[in-house]
Amino acid sequence: MATNRDNAIARRLVRLADGVSLLAEGGTRTRMGNAPKSVIFKQWKLTVSHVLPRRLESDALGDDHVEDHEQTFAIPVLLVPPLMVRPYVYDLRPDHSFARHLRDAGFATYVLDFGVPDAHDASLLLEHYVYTFLPAAIDAVLRHSGAKQVSLVGYCMGGIFSMLYTAATLPRDGAGSKTANLVTIGAPINFEKTGIISAAAKFGQGFIDQLMDVLGNVPSVGAELGFKVLSGSKSITKWIDLARNLYDDEYVRGFDAVNTWVNDMLPYPRDAFKQMVKDVVGKNKILRRELELGGNRIDLAVIQAPLLAIAGRNDNIATLASTRAVLASVSSQDKTFVEVSGGHVGVIAGSSAPEQVWQRVGDWLAPRSLGSAPA
Q1: 3-state helix/strand/coil string of the chain
Q2: For residue 190, which phi and psi values (nearest 5 degrees)?
Q3: pLDDT tens figures, 308-362
Q4: What is the predicted pLDDT for the residue at 12?
């Protein structure tokens, strides 16, 4: 007769087999980025999608969220992804989705997708994102929502784009900004404090133009390799952690989603990458208020919108020192810097992100999203 111990071992073995099967089949992949959405704008390779309210979903797709608010807040939210990162970083799976979290909290939530760069996009510059793509996306959100302002939430370079846009497009009289609130997650400002990234950019100053002219767009494998190198020992120990938790379906699903994401990067447009290496990282021009895009100097000091900046304590890319510099860079009276656990990936997609980051973002935005100032 089987003992309780035997039954426990058998159950654990079955769960272990299920975990291995789930990982091998990649079952999580088909559910990444699948929050029901409607495309409200499409031009060039740019797409803006509205995350549908739950009452409009034809299929909950396994979403276990229990909240079902009607739209509560007047100011919508636009999630801005970084370059090289697919926007499903905001919607990794039905039960682990920043986009659904904000929607369920009562925000009209929109997701921006810059598209997949190819050889025809090699000449794209940072100013195209700041002066063309982001404004077009924001105007689409405002038309669709009927609001006069939008809250911009950006991870990594998405946060930097959001700040550059806000500073670059602020009317001369300082009134009528379309940015109601700014939220940055893992977005460095002082690149002198990014360690190996800063050192590499300075080293490459003399030959980056020639290298990129030969290489073209940075291939996606370059970003994937960079993430792994900068993750240090974590890129190895994560597999040990997985082996220890193969019996845990939820852990395996989370691992599969994040691992798929970091191995599914996008190419980086050649000329925009040159600007990043030479001006943004190598010469630290954002912090020094010397960055020129499209012939205009961009100074973050003109920003007065409420700002929430979140950074991971173990982030080797957007270090605490590099991200904290945003507080001194903007003129906002309402500004908050928050440290949370996790590295550059974990801060947006890790197991603690829902509580430490997503909930905090929603709670911070709520009282600042009740009304929209006239344009």
Answers
A1: CCCHHHHHHHHHHHHHHHHHHHHHHCCCHHHCCCCCEEEEEEECCEEEEEECCHHHCCCCCCCCCCCCCCCCCCCCEEEECCCCCCHHHHCCECCECHHHHHHHCCCCEEEEECCCCCHHHCCCCHHHHHHHHHHHHHHHHHHHHCCCCEEEEEECHHHHHHHHHHHHCCCCCCCCCCEEEEEEECCCCCHHHCCHHHHHHHHCCCCHHHHHHHHCCECHHHHHHHHHHHCCCHHHHHHHHHHHCCCCHHHHHHHHHHHHHHCCCCCECHHHHHHHHHHHHHCCCCCCCCCEECCEECCHHHCCCCEEEEEECCCCCCCHHHHHCHHHHCCCCCEEEEEECCCCCHHHHCCCHHHHHHHHHHHHHHHHCCCCCCC
A2: -95, 95
A3: 999 999 888 899 999 999 999 999 999 999 999 988 888 998 889 999 999 999 9
A4: 47
Helix axes 220-230, 249-262, angle to 10 degrees: 130
CA-to-CA dists, residue 240 to 90, 233, 256, 373, angstroms: 26, 11, 14, 51
Q: Among 293, 296, 314, 373, which residue's Cα sits nearest to residue 133? A: 293
- When pLDDT is cut at 50, 70 and 90, the band that residue 132 belongs to is very high
pTM: 0.84
pLDDT (average), residues 74-101: 93
Domain boundaries, the chain: 32-218+267-368
pLDDT grade, residue 75 (50/70/90)? very high
**CA-CA distance, 158 to 285, in Å (whole number)?**
17
First vs last Cα of the chain: how many Å apart? 76
Q: Which CATH architecture has domain 32-218+267-368?
A: 3-Layer(aba) Sandwich (3.40)
Place of tokens 């939210």: 77
Strands 296-297 and 292-293: antiparallel
Task: Give the mean pLDDT of 107-135.
Answer: 96
pLDDT in tens, 188-230: 999 999 888 888 888 888 889 999 999 899 988 876 676 666 5
Question: In which residue are the tokens 């929109």 written?
Answer: 110
